[in-house]
């Protein structure tokens, strides 16, 4: 299991995060007070707060990304578009701990398996780290949002259809009692990106409340 490095100045938030992580799997959690103590290896997770994003921290993260693109860096708070590529994912405040822990487990348990195998479906190759799909024949790029990337990642790791409730919990941290159309909206947007000419290709299959990623573009 990876080690967790927590660079969060707010003590209440830091203590809550550490307690949740330790309760979950008794994982190794290390508090750091300076960005130079943060790791760069791919088997570690850095949790960093927006309050620490000064010039020194941003410079360190840029250098770290040059060394190891696959390291997991999770930001608590907002980040500018220019710096978004430094972070694996960002989480708006106030932080929802349940959602954060679901996503944390995704990066610990599922993402490493996905990185070990290329996700190719039809003419497309998913590049999760770059949040994009590459058209294999001509190297055209289809840009994805964080959630679109996570959704394709999650669907791609299973040969079986996945229920709506599981997807909402895994990607957005929602519980079954919440009424939302966010999943359907993201599926719709992805379908438009994957079939821009409206040829009728169907890469995202919806049957009886479950979803799956087609490898052929047809049901």
Walkthrough of the structure:
This protein folds into two domains: 99 residues, Rossmann fold, CATH 3.40.50; 97 residues, Arc Repressor Mutant, subunit A (Orthogonal Bundle). Helices cover 37% and strands 21% of the residues. Strand 1, helix 1 and strand 2 form a beta-alpha-beta unit. Helix 3 crosses helix 5 and helix 4 packs across helix 5.
**Stretches where pLDDT falls below 50 for ≥5 residues?**
none
CATH first level of the largest domain: which class?
Alpha Beta
Main beta sheet, described?
5 strands, parallel
If classified by CATH, what would the architecture of the largest domain be? Answer: 3-Layer(aba) Sandwich
Strand order of the largest sheet: 2-1-3-4-5
The 3D shape can be described as globular
Helix and strand composition category: alpha/beta
The proportion of residues in beta strands is 15-25%
């Amino acid at each position: 299991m990876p080690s967790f490095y927590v660079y969060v100045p707010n003590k209440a938030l830091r203590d809550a995060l550490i307690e949740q992580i330790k309760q979950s799997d008794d994982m190794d959690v290390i508090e750091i007070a300076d960005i130079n103590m943060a790791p760069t290896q791919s088997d570690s997770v850095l949790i960093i707060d927006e309050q620490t994003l000064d010039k020194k921290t941003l410079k360190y993260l840029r250098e770290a990304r040059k060394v190891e693109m696959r390291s997991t860096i999770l930001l608590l708070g907002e980040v500018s578009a220019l710096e978004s590529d430094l972070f694996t994912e960002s989480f708006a405040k106030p932080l929802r701990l349940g959602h954060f822990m679901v996503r944390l487990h995704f990066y610990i348990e599922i993402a490493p398996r996905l990185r070990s195998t290329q996700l190719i479906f039809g003419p497309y190759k998913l590049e999760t780290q770059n949040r994009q799909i590459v058209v294999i024949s001509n190297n055209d790029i289809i840009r994805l949002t964080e959630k679109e990337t996570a959704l394709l990642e999650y669907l791609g790791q299973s040969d079986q259809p996945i229920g709506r409730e599981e997807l909402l919990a895994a990607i957005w941290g929602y519980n079954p009692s919440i009424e939302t159309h966010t999943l359907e909206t993201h599926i719709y947007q992805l379908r438009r990106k994957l079939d821009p000419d409206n040829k009728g290709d169907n890469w995202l299959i919806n049957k009886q409340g479950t979803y799956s990623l087609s490898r052929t573009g047809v049901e």
